[in-house]
Automatic annotation (TrEMBL):
Stretches for region Disordered: 404-450
Protein name stated in the entry: DUF4407 domain-containing protein
Biased composition (Basic and acidic residues): 404-413, 438-450
Transmembrane annotation, as ranges: 20-38, 50-72, 84-107, 341-361
Keywords on record: Membrane, Transmembrane, Transmembrane helix
Amino acid sequence: MQLKPNAFRLNETVRGVETMTRFALAVLSLASGVYTYLGVRGLLDGSATFVFFAAIIYSAAVSVAIYAFWTYMMRFIPLVVSGVQRISLFLVMLLGCGMIIAMSSWLNAAALAGSAALEQHMAVTLQGYAEDLDRAHANALASQSLLPDVERASARFAALAQDERESGALTGTQGSGSVVQLLSQMSQQMNQLGQTITTSRTEVEGLFEEGSQHLARMRELVSTPGTIEPRTDSFQAEAVQLSAVIAALQQTDVAGSVKRAASDLTAGFIAPVADGQSADLASRQDQVMETVRASVDAQSAALALAADEILATPPVEQRRFVPLSSAEAVIRYWSDFIPSWAGAMSIDLLPVVMVLVLMVVNDAMRRDAQDLEEAESITAAEMLRALSIYRQMEAAGIAPVREGIKPDEERVNEQQPLADEPPVETAAEDGTVTKIEMAQRKRGEGPRPA
């Protein structure tokens, strides 16, 4: 059987958990202040003493502000009944939540996930550098694809020169003449161009190996446990050196050199004078040299076209590693640290749940109190106070008329002393005290007899 109305039970429960509510709010405010201190400490510059005291003052201000704000919300929102006023307080609470997030929650997130966010930043940057190194290496190796064409042209010119020297395959007259000299010259130029491409391949492989070593050290810095600040500094130094390697790889691209050499084959083509002893032989030599010129022009155009395709590849843009603070890293990579953000904001905004619980409980108490009889809602102290006031009204003669007793009879009854009542002292005008015997009326007895 329920001995007390539900409104009283709810009221007693709210009073019982009030101390716990204050304690929980104080602990949450203190926790938010501690994490705010850890977060703001990484944003300040200056001496260690300045950073320490500045961070302490800021975190203390945050703790006090959070505690005071939620105390006001817990006190006022449950007591407000009007819908407009309650909505106004909700808007104020929403504004306060936004300000708390702005001054504390993001710093709490920085303290919770700052190191992980910086490692994430280094990992993302490392991936970008790895892609840049691969692209620069691929662009440099693209020029090596021209080497087979150059070697094939050189071999063809050398073979023609050999055939002309041994059997006169071009002019019909064997021996070393103007045609053999021209073909040998073209073969030598192609050999020189091929050597240039081959030399660049060795340099490209060396630079790529050096860049891979820098990437390996950067991966170790990302995954190695320990303090994040020294690792970030070392990572930045490795990134600078890797950028220099990538730039050097782009400088080794010989596609432009091949194109210029191919253009020189045509523009700088100098045919020797036919040295045939007879006019017929000299005429045949001129015809063969014209054919060689056409072949050189065709080979030059092919090499220039292939070089243009390589040069059309977009170059690798220079990448720069930008160091971030823990707070900046958490904000930039917030989507990767949603649990940390949720925890940081819950520390500051958990009192919203307490405010809503108190609001619902107070509404329930008000609804239950409306259904109570007046006799059920009065306390013992209020009853005793009412009886005392009633006796004072009776003594003053302004008490309400009792049922069945006329006012004159009641006044006479009040003036007649009872046998059981002790004497009451009355003072006369001259100061003489007279004792009046009055019967003592016990509690629970009915009205005094008339």
